[in-house]
Amino acid sequence: MKGEHVPFEKICELYDGEIPNAEEREALMDHIKGCPECSESYNKMQGMMSLLCSCKCGISHMQYFKSETLIKIKSRKRQKLFFKALPAMAAAILIFVGIGIVSSVFMSTDETTALSDSRMQPSMNDSEEVINIIRKNNARIVNVSDIFVEGEVSRASFNRLRRDLGFRKVAYRLIENNTDAGTDNKWLQNIEEVGSSNIVNPDIPSAGSFKAGKDVIRFRVFR
Amino acid sequence: MSNDDDIKVIDQVLEGDIESFSAIIGKYQDMVFRYVYNQLNNYDEALDVTQEIFIMAIEALASFRREAKFSTWLYSIMVNYCKNYRKKNRRYNMVSMNVSRGEDEYEMQLPDTRENPEADVVNADSLRIVKEEIAELPDDYREIVLMRDIEGLSYNEISDILGIKLSNVKVRIHRGRELLKNRLHARGLI
Hints:
The complex is a heterodimer. Chain A is an alpha+beta fold. In chain A, 58% of the residues lie in helices and 14% in strands. Chain A has helices at 8-16, 22-34, 36-54, 65-136, 155-165, 185-189; strands at residues 140-144, 148-154, 168-175, 191-194, 216-222. The radius of gyration of chain A is 56 Å and the shape is rod-shaped. The model of chain A is unreliable at 196-204 and 206-212 (pLDDT under 50).
């Protein structure tokens, strides 16, 4: 060490006790003691360390720090759990909404079916009633469809049949010797609401215009 | 509380007893706060960051592999958090430091942890200058001076925390100290 100053790096290591070799340590200390420049450097270092020690402040006056931190930790954990569960919750909501949509579609289909069934029911009952009325009046049933019940009756019985049918729409035409049974065009012209004589189309022949005879009247009672 | 005690507490926390983490907070809060405060130079900010560091630590506790001491692991979280925080808030920090630094220093009642405070009284003005000069140090030197000379960590611990070689730790320590010593000398403190 003679003739050389101790580098600051070595002074630091010496101060920190990071020089394991005892001989080296002693040699450095001897030099520092004898060299005013190195001694000043070492003293400055000690002074600085003393100042740095004074910076060792704490937060012991923050008495609520611990509890506040714990509260924050717990709330963050809850938040994290919530965000973790969010995709599952979203999926569950989507599933529920999907189920809701699907079931509502099926429901509406069922309801429509039920409605159509309920409409069909009276309609079927009505058809049966019409058939019964037709039979009671000695008429012959020719055809039963979704729209009408078709039959044939003698001109003599037709007036009674019209009366018995009540408020129903009936189309009819006169068939002379069953020769024009296949023509459909005439049906449309002769539809009347039986039982409500006051709104009968004047062009349609009234019940009184049919006279007893051999002729047969083919009719259709509409649902 | 030794490292074994720390491990016991960690096990309790990992089993779901969050309350027991208060022992860890109590043990390290001063150390973490000191480091953070010296890094940020803003009391309120330092308090928030200290809290965030503990929250981060408890959230990452399962990843603590117990190869190193818990304190070393916590320090590395602390150092990295501060580094990122400073990087993120550098622009704003500089403004707030200039405005509030003085107020923070004077308003704070700092407990003196020395064995005999009367023997080596350092007035508030000297303390303010020391903190100013620490704050002015380059990041690499400041963090290492804080760890070594304020927290008293060993060279090896610093090496583990910063993930740098022991030789680099030594170089940074002596350069940081030299810089700080010259600045404090220039301001008439030493």
